[in-house]
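All the exercises in this workshop are built on plain-text protein records. There is nothing in a record beyond a sequence line and a structure line. A learned vocabulary of local backbone shapes supplies the integers on the structure line. The question running through the whole workshop is how a given chain folds. Here is such a record, shown just as it appears in the course material:

***
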Amino acid sequence: MANVVVNKFKVESMRGNINLSADNEIKVALLDNIFGLSSTDQLSDVTSWNSLSADWEASGDNYVVGGKYLSAVNIYQDNINNRAQMSAANVVWELSTISAYGVIVYRENDGLPICFIDFGIIKTSIVSDFVVQWSGGTVLNLT
């Protein structure tokens, strides 16, 4: 399963309805094994995280339903690689026991899915920190 930028997010971005750098608005939630069974096309067409979360969201000790807010969000233009990027601090669930296949980044107020990120393997923590470490600090690239 590849990483997917959701079509609804693309449309809302073109309409000017997205502010990825707004404080306490963008969240990341962990996904269970259903994520590994979904095709790229199915994930691209998701229109609301709210309708899927009960079936797709991971669970575990010290994990709160809905995930965590992204912090230290930065939006910038990368002229060298011809893209726009969104970076954020790593997300940590302290002293948790969790297994997850990936994450969804979404807007909390309406459940607008932004992107799905596949870990490529099942990540597990057992009474230890579960860390989502963004590759190079980058959550999302738009080319």
Remarks:
- The helical segments are 7-14, 34-37, 40-44, 53-56.
- Residues 77 and 84 are 5 Å apart (CA to CA).
